[in-house]
Specification:
Helix content is 41%, strand content 17%. The chain has a three-stranded antiparallel beta sheet with strand order 1-3-2. Strands 5-4-6 form a three-stranded mixed beta sheet, with no helix packed on it.
């Protein structure tokens, strides 16, 4: 694994956010001024292929990258806020319904976040 890949993996694993490639590039640039965007994208792709990080694809939004730790996501339908939620591992339940083994799943729950609900129904 390249030095840049190690640094990118460390950034993603330590982040409490779901960073975009652009955010990762800007953060990495602070300590590695010679890094270029293509290097970041190439390493993100390689890390995803190796199963070391997850790529989160959302409509009308740039891909975001996340650690492998088993968890699911809440996505606000209005503002796009993305947060982690832990429902437990649903693998056995899904395998039981399918009747065969699965490699992984990616559960995204769409809802209105508290801020958007408050804007929709302001208290007067």
């Amino acid at each position: 694994m390249s030095r840049y890949a190690e640094l990118i993996l460390e950034l993603i694993n330590q982040s409490q956010e779901h960073m975009t490639a652009e955010q990762i590039f800007l953060e990495l640039k602070k300590t590695e001024p010679r890094v270029v965007q293509a290097t970041v994208y190439n390493n993100l792709n390689a890390l995803c292929q190796e199963g070391l990080i997850r790529r989160l694809s959302l409509e009308n939004s740039p891909d975001r990258y996340d650690k492998i730790l088993r968890h699911d996501h809440l996505i606000c339908r209005k503002c796009g806020a993305l947060s982690d939620v832990h429902f437990g591992d649903l693998t056995r339940q899904l395998e039981g319904q399918l009747g065969e083994g699965i490699f992984s799943y990616d559960l995204k729950v769409f809802y209105l976040c508290p801020k958007c609900r408050e804007k929709k129904n302001p208290v007067n």
